[in-house]
């Protein structure tokens, strides 16, 4: 008994539990989902989603409270504004993706309790990744996120595209995390056995071991650039996005990118500050190539999901400019604001594709022709989100891009900003192509739209109205956020300003 | 040399041929089951080597993980798949000689590096510093347990959650479910004839 008491008191002194309380709530939600499904024997799956929703909301509330009163705590976690903002972003992603996937319950023929389980675990992995300052925690949480995303993408196991997508994702993520681990092992060895990021910089003598640190930086860059799908490591993105179920793509197109962004920024800012000239050049090159490649190939795509995959590659290219342009007075404000807006834009677009493809069973862009006659709400909100992605004023995408490019220009990244502007114009082309297709009245409607039914025919009407409203709620939320966030740009920038570390 | 060093050399002289024989057996047995068993011999001898080098935790971990899990899995997989005895061709093409050359260069590099390190650490200054580290009186397992529950508590618990999710995720695609009852219910409620895009609704 004495041992347990002393252990608990020592535990309390080393880890302040209130700092990881949001994650603990998510873990409690995860365990509750598993046990509830076990007890209910597979019935009443909507209850599981309610648990997920509640735990996400409570977690967000506690995180909000913590954001206001910053508790500074070192060792495993550092609770500065940067980390907390990323945790908040990931919680928003999880919340909106729950709203998207509620109707999965009744429309699919496969078991459903594992779906919220994997989503919670991916969100948990992302949240811990955003605050980890310790090589081991970084690696374990990265693997957690990758593994849960892989299971999610292979969820519809009877469909061969899903199998292919999850196989590709698993193999590529395994290869990239082994490269990351090799970079970590070099850092661990040459800093005399230190695992904490701060201690590594203290102990490693940069002048003596410069070639080794460059090699380690190259490996870490390769490992994290895979997650971000930057240029040479982007090959997995279109295939995985096209193959996975649409709700899943919505979820991990934002969650894993946001978590990987926080990891990338923290690693490169903390460990390699003396190398900043070198890795700035390399990252700039990667960003320019991702922007060019993503936008040019997206022009030629015929499937909506593949086009969105390439467009997300180019969006991450834009965000890289924000990372490179960080300076003392503005911190990472441009990157954080653009990430925030990107979450809503991307989730909004996927929130509209999901019901459309559910009702017509196709993903081809040509089949969107004349949609405004059948479903004006969907058309209008899709138009808003696509325009926001393209960066047309007065939507918030424009404000995000404007701030990003202004910040980049001020920091001297002239080539990147010029390329970004040119490729933004190219991206407007393919977004407008879809909008034009949807809004023009075609004399002979496409076959698929002829059978376009507004209500889901697989369920009874009562449940369908209740569930339809959750996806509609997500759509409207995202549309509003991607439109009106531009008006709230100044407060957002002020919050994200002092994030330089 | 004194008695303890003699015993140490003797034990090492027993273990190292075991590793050598086992690895040669792994690559040259025609029957894959024999080859996987000799792989088990290699892993066991490596773990005995760790014991002789006074790293008790690593030795135990090697036995549990490599021999007890990975090798058992390999043997299991080999025995389940009904393999015919593979015949290896006697022709030695260009690939054989390239691999031979690359491996021998690698081997010579490693031997040279080890000799240099040996010379470096044999000098008296380094030996006294090495002895000061007092490695032989630490209790590895206790130290590791202490660190796991104090400094590395979050990754430790997260790894246990990862195991849970990995188990669920591994069983999920492999499991058999009854979808007969679901299909019957859905067919009753649908009033649109199910064309092929409609069947893909679960995918979207």
Automatic annotation (TrEMBL), chain A:
Flavoprotein found in the keyword field: no
Keyword field contains Translocase: yes
Main location: membrane
Pfam families according to UniProt: Ndh2_N, Proton_antipo_M
Keywords of the record: Chloroplast, Membrane, NAD, NADP, Plastid, Plastoquinone, Quinone, Thylakoid, Translocase, Transmembrane, Transmembrane helix, Transport
Entry's Gene Ontology molecular function annotations: NADH dehydrogenase (ubiquinone) activity; quinone binding
Source taxon at top rank: Eukaryota
Gene Ontology terms: cellular component: membrane
Domain NAD(P)H-quinone oxidoreductase subunit 2 N-terminal: 17-103
Residues of the NADH:quinone oxidoreductase/Mrp antiporter transmembrane domain: 132-427
GO biological process terms on file: ATP synthesis coupled electron transport
Protein name, UniProt field: NADH-plastoquinone oxidoreductase subunit 2
Automatic annotation (TrEMBL), chain B:
Source organism superkingdom: Eukaryota
Recorded GO MF terms: NADH dehydrogenase (ubiquinone) activity
Transmembrane segments: 6-30, 37-53, 59-81, 93-117, 152-171
Pfam family membership, one: Oxidored_q3
Alphabetically ordered keywords of this record: Membrane, Transmembrane, Transmembrane helix
InterPro entries linked: NADH_UbQ/plastoQ_OxRdtase_su6, Nuo/plastoQ_OxRdtase_6_NuoJ
Family of this protein: Belongs to the complex I subunit 6 family.
Name of this protein: NAD(P)H-quinone oxidoreductase subunit 6, chloroplastic
Organism of this sequence: Ceratopteris richardii
């Amino acid at each position: 008994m004495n041992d347990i008491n002393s252990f608990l008191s020592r535990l309390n002194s080393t880890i302040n539990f209130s700092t990881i309380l949001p994650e603990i709530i998510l873990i409690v939600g995860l365990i509750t989902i598993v046990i509830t499904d076990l007890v209910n024997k597979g019935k009443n799956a909507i209850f599981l989603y309610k648990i997920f929703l509640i735990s996400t909301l409570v977690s967000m509330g506690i995180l909000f409270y913590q954001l206001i009163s910053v508790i500074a705590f070192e060792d495993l976690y550092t609770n500065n504004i940067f980390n907390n903002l990323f945790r908040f972003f990931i919680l928003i992603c999880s919340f909106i993706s729950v709203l998207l996937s509620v109707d999965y319950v009744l429309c699919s023929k496969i078991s459903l309790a594992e779906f919220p389980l994997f989503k919670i675990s991916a969100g948990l992995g992302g949240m811990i990744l955003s605050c980890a300052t310790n090589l081991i925690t970084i690696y374990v949480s990265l693997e957690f996120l990758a593994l849960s995303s892989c299971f999610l993408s292979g969820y519809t196991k009877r469909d061969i595209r899903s199998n292919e997508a999850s196989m590709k994702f698993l193999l590529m993520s395994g290869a990239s995390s082994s490269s990351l681990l090799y970079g970590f092992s070099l850092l661990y060895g040459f800093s005399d056995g230190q695992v904490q990021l701060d201690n590594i910089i203290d102990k490693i003598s940069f002048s003596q071991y410069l070639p080794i640190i460059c090699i380690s930086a190259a490996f870490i860059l390769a490992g994290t650039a895979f997650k971000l799908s930057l240029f040479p490591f982007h090959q997995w993105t279109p295939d995985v996005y096209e193959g996975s179920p649409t709700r899943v793509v919505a979820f991990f197109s934002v969650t894993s990118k946001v978590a990987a962004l926080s990891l990338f920024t923290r690693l490169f800012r903390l460990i390699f500050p003396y190398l900043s000239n070198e890795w700035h050049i390399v990252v700039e090159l990667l960003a320019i190539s991702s922007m060019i490649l993503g936008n040019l190939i997206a022009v030629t795509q015929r499937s909506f999901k593949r086009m969105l995959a390439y467009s997300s590659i180019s969006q991450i290219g834009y965000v890289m400019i924000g990372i490179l342009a960080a300076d003392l007075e503005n911190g990472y404000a441009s990157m954080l604001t653009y990430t925030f807006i990107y979450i809503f834009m991307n989730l909004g677009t996927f929130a509209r594709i999901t019901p459309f493809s559910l009702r017509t069973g196709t993903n081809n862009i040509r089949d969107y022709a004349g949609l405004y006659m059948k479903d004006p709400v969907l058309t209008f909100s899709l138009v808003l989100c696509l325009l926001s992605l393209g960066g047309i004023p007065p939507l918030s995408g424009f404000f995000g891009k404007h701030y990003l490019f202004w910040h980049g220009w001020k920091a001297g990244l002239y080539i990147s900003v010029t390329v970004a502007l040119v490729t933004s114009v190219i991206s407007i082309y393919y977004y407008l192509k879809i909008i034009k297709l949807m809004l023009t009245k075609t004399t002979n409607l496409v076959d698929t739209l002829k059978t376009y039914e507004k209500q889901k025919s697989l369920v009874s009407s009562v449940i369908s109205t209740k569930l339809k409203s959750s996806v509609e709620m997500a759509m409207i939320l995202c549309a509003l956020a991607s439109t009106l966030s531009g008006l709230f740009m100044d407060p957002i920038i002020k919050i994200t300003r002092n994030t330089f570390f | 040399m004194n008695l303890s060093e003699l015993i140490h050399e003797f034990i090492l002289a027993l273990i190292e041929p075991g590793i050598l024989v086992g690895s040669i057996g792994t690559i040259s047995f025609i029957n894959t089951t024999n080859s996987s068993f000799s792989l088990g011999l290699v892993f066991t001898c490596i773990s005995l080597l760790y014991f002789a080098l006074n790293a008790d935790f690593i030795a135990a971990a090697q036995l549990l993980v490599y021999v007890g899990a990975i090798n058992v899995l390999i043997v299991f997989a080999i025995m389940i798949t009904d393999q015919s005895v593979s015949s290896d061709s006697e022709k030695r093409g260009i690939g054989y000689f390239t691999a031979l050359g690359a491996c021998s260069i690698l081997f010579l590099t490693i031997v040279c590096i080890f000799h240099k390190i040996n010379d470096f650490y044999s000098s008296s200054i380094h030996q006294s510093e090495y002895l000061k580290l007092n490695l032989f009186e630490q209790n590895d397992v206790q130290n590791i347990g202490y660190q796991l529950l104090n400094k590395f508590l979050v990754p430790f618990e997260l790894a246990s959650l990862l195991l849970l999710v990995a188990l669920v995720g591994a069983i999920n695609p492999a499991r058999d479910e009854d979808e007969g009852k679901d299909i019957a219910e859905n067919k009753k409620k649908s009033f649109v004839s199910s064309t092929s895009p409609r069947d893909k609704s679960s995918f979207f």
